[in-house]
Amino acid sequence: MSEEITHEATLESPTPAPGLKAAARKSALTLEGVARAYKTGSGPLIILKDAYLSVAAGEMVALVAPSGAGKSTLLHIAGLLEHPDAGEVFIMEEQCSRLGDDARTALRRRQIGFVYQFHHLLSEFSALENLVLPQRIAGLPRREAENRGMELLKYLQVDQRAAHRPAELSGGEQQRVAIARAVVNAPRLLLADEPTGNLDPKTAEHVFSTLKALVRESGLAALIATHNYSLAAQMDRTVTIEEGAIVPAKVG
Asked: What is the pLDDT of residue 131?
């Protein structure tokens, strides 16, 4: 499907995103001395070693590193999808190492939103229904879930496509719906893995602009893995992974 950006509007002074209120600028994600290695036939493959990272509310941090350096592992650990071998993960200053699986799942659903390179929208549901479903799982009444979903779609400029299924949307529209789904339950931390990787440059810039406006207005903390150095340069700072450590990186 050809890429078309429709219903464009300025994002310089957006209406605050629904369901999200700017939080005090405290750390939404903290990694302290995190280590992770995988067993291989030739010995352990060290991905992270004594790694430290903090992402504050309202901050956008770009994660750039070569393929295989450990970006996905880092995001999985930060998102409580994977346990580190050592070290500690704090989400909104809550220590996670002692949490059982059910508690980790509950914390992840409550505080963390995920956006991937591929949108992963449910193909049999409309754009709006893709936003209503996670809210219903969280216990919201249908009418409230629909209202919040429509407000978010409007904020991200895809409300006119609310009744369309993913196959009827352009790539940029699909990704904006995916972003809306990621934040519809008002998490405090957003983790994104190449969120514009499947888009052409013009559409990628537009999608990133909507994401950046959402982060700024809502006070979300965002850790975004990307190979797009132009987008990375627009974030607050950039980090990379070198010899298992998380270190500052220069872009541009």
From this structure: 96
